[in-house]
Amino acid sequence: MKRSLVKRCVFWLGGLFPLLISCEMAWLQEDPDTSPEVVFDHLWTDLRDRYAFFDHKGIDWEELYGTFRPKISPEMGGEDLFDVLGEMLYELRDGHVNLTSGFNRSRNWDWYQQFPSNYNENVVVLSYLGKDHHRNGPLYQQFLGDVLFITYRSFAQDITEADLDGVMVRAANARGIILDIRSNGGGNLGNAYRLAACFTDSRIKFAEQRWKNGPGAQDFTPWSPMEVTPRKGPKYSGNVLVLTNRRSYSASTFFAQMMRSLPNVHLIGDQTGGGGGTPAFGELPNGWIYRFSATQTIDLEGKQLEDGVSVDREVRLRRTDENMGKDTIIEEALRILRETTQ
C-alpha cells in the first residue's frame, strides 16, 4: 500500500512539474518594449486604424506622423514624450481624445472655450430653482407659474425609473416643460435614452451610427439606426423646450438630437458642443491610457453630431439680464410656452 501511494504521488508530481515550468516561463517573459519610439508608433497606428474623424475633419494622419515622429528620441524622458503625444492628439480637435499618465492628462476644450457660456448657475439656482425646489435623483425641478422647469447637471448622474415616475407625475398638469441641459458635459448615454423616452409615445429613429474598423479612410461598419423607445411608465406629451449651450457635450449632444427628433420638442439657446463619437480606450506599452472617438453618428439629414446639434431658436444670455438675476434663455422659453399654449 505504501509503495502504491508513493507511486501515485510521484506520478502526480511528475504531471505537475511541466505545469510549474510553464508557469515559471510565463512569469519570466520579457517586459514589453516601452521605448519612446515604440510607444509613439503604438498610439499612432491604433488611431490610424480606429479613429473615426480623419476624413470628416480633413486631418492627414500620415502628415502628422512626419511632423511629430522626428521629435521622438530614445533618450527623452516621460514628460517630454507625453508632451509630444499630447500635442499630436490636440490636432484632432476632439474633446473625446485624451492621454492619461500618472502625472498629467492631455485634452482639447476648443469646442466650448472660444464661445460665450450662455449660462450662469448661480442665477439659475437663486432665481429659478429657489430653496424649495423638488428633487427626483439628479433631476431638480421647480414650477415657474404653470411651467415645470427641470435642470439636469450631468448625464453621469444616473436616473432611475422611480425618479422619472416622480417627475412625470408632477409634470402631468404643467402647461409645458423647460428642460435645461446647458453646461452638461455628458456621461452615461443610457441616461439620455431613459430621459428622452419620457416624451414620446412611439419608437423614433433619431440618428445612425457606424464604427471605424480599419486603416482606410472609409473602413467602417455599415450604418445602424439609433432609436428612442417610449418608456412603460408615465410620459409627457405636451410642449417641451430643451436649453443647450456649447458646453452641452457628448451624451448631451445625443440627447439634444433625440429630443429635436420629437414633434413636441424644440431646442433653444446655442448649439451643443458636439462629441458625436463613442469613446474607445487603449493602453500604451508604458501603461498610459488613451481615449479617442471610434464611431461616427449622423442625424436624419446626414449631418455629423460631432459638429454639434443646432437649436431651433438661438438665444444669447444678456449681461444686463444676468446682472438683474434673470436668465435670458429661460425667460424666452417661458414666453414661448405661455404664448403657444394659451
From TrEMBL:
The keyword Transcription regulation does not apply. Keywords: Hydrolase, Protease. Residues 122-316 form the Tail specific protease domain. One of its GO terms (biological process) is proteolysis. One of its GO terms (molecular function) is serine-type peptidase activity. InterPro entries: ClpP/crotonase-like_dom_sf, Tail-specific_protease, Tricorn_C1. SMART domains: TSPc. Pfam families: Peptidase_S41, Tricorn_C1. This is Carboxyl-terminal protease-related protein. It comes from Lunatimonas lonarensis.
